[in-house]
Every structure is written in structure tokens, then in C-alpha cells.
Write a structure and sequence with these properties.
53% strand
């Protein structure tokens, strides 16, 4: 398994930007598909974005398209989530997750980082 640690959360005004980072440990980072998820207060966890092992393809939840960008640097074992035009409804704990080759689900999760967007 891979260990994940998120950082970069905080308080931002609506319309602002934040960049979340996820640091991975382990020698086989490039063999994992990586994703970002979030859990708003009192709500279920939601899919945000996913990126392929090579970083060549990514997909997003509809409400994040055009505002959020997922990227990765396999040499640094890092995954990023650039969030622009933030809205109060983006307030949530954001989690980084890893999915091993051949696995249907994300099996490794970070502890989460809080993002709060004020109106």
C-alpha cells in the first residue's frame, strides 16, 4: 500500500483559489491511479477528480469541471488539486486516494485537509 498525506487546505473567500497537495510514500507510486474526494459537512463523501497513472488523462465531477485541475508528478510522488473560483459549497474535507493497478476501488486514503470557503 501507499501512504498519503494531504496539505494545503485552509480558509479562503469565495472566488479565491487554493492548491492542495498530496505526498505519497512507497516505491511504486506511478503504478497507482490517484484521486481526490471530498466530504462536505453532514454529507456523504463525493468524487472530485481522478488522474491516470501516467498523468495523461483525468476526469472530473461535473460541478468541478473548468474550476479544478488535478495533476501529478511521479518523480516527486505528488498529486495536486488546483481549485479556482471557489464557492461556499466547496467547503469540505478533501481526501487524496490511491487505486492500485487492477483494483476497482481506492484502497489507500489520506487523513484529509479542511477547505473552508467563506461567502
Amino acid at each position: 500500500q501507499v501512504q498519503l498525506v494531504e496539505s494545503g487546505g485552509g480558509l479562503v473567500q469565495a472566488g479565491g483559489s487554493l492548491r492542495l497537495s498530496c505526498t505519497a510514500s512507497g516505491r511504486t507510486f506511478s503504478s497507482y491511479g490517484m484521486g481526490w474526494f471530498r466530504q462536505p459537512p453532514g454529507a456523504e463523501r463525493q468524487f472530485v477528480a481522478v488522474i491516470s497513472r501516467s498523468g495523461g488523462s483525468a476526469s472530473y465531477a461535473d460541478s468541478m469541471k473548468g474550476r479544478f485541475t488535478i495533476s501529478r508528478d511521479n518523480a516527486k510522488k505528488m498529486v495536486y488539486l488546483q481549485m479556482n473560483s471557489l464557492k461556499p459549497e466547496d467547503t469540505a474535507v478533501y481526501y487524496c486516494a490511491a487505486r492500485a493497478v487492477g483494483e476497482p476501488d481506492f484502497g489507500s486514503w489520506g487523513q484529509g485537509t479542511q477547505v473552508t470557503v467563506s461567502s
